Amino acid sequence: MSHSNMACYIVTCQASCNVSQVLLFEKATFLVVAHHMRKQHRDGQRFEKISNIIKQFKLSCNKMQSFFRSIEVRNSSFAAYIELFTTNMYIMVVMSDPQVCGAAVQLNINNAKRYFKDADQSGNM
Question: Could you give the C-alpha distances from 39 to 21, 79, 110, in angstroms and in order?
């Protein structure tokens, strides 16, 4: 999939999920493949930092001989969800409203997964 096509799909996903940020990570390395944010952040190394944190978490899971499929992180100002999205990508959805129901976000992620799968099968990716 080209980065421009991927960005279009991310924007579509963001609109349907009503989120602040959507990021796609490559599964093996957790490098950011594509992203879309509603507002820009001052930290130019933001994605590298996020990627490193997730990689460290994944390594910790591997040391415990376990596999993580998803994770949810919340505090008073945001809620973030990271989940296996395709066979070779993870998705991270960041909501600026920490009161958002996790099940609602999960439903939207699952809908976006179907959209990506359909686009992939039709050759639009």
Answer: 8, 16, 25
- pLDDT digit string, tens, across residues 33-90: 888 787 777 777 878 888 898 889 888 988 999 888 888 888 998 888 999 888 888 8
Number of H helices, E strands in the chain: 3, 5
Q: What is the pLDDT of residues 8-34, one digit of tens each?
A: 566 666 666 667 888 888 888 888 888
Q: What is the pTM of this model?
A: 0.79
CA distance 53 to 19: 21
Contact 97, 109 (CB under 8 A): no
Transcribe 52-77 into DSSP letters. Answer: HHHHHHHHHHHHTT----EEEEE-SS
| Residue 26 per-residue DSSP state | E
Instruction: Give yes or no for a contact between 92 and 81, defined as CB atoms under 8 angstroms apart.
Output: yes
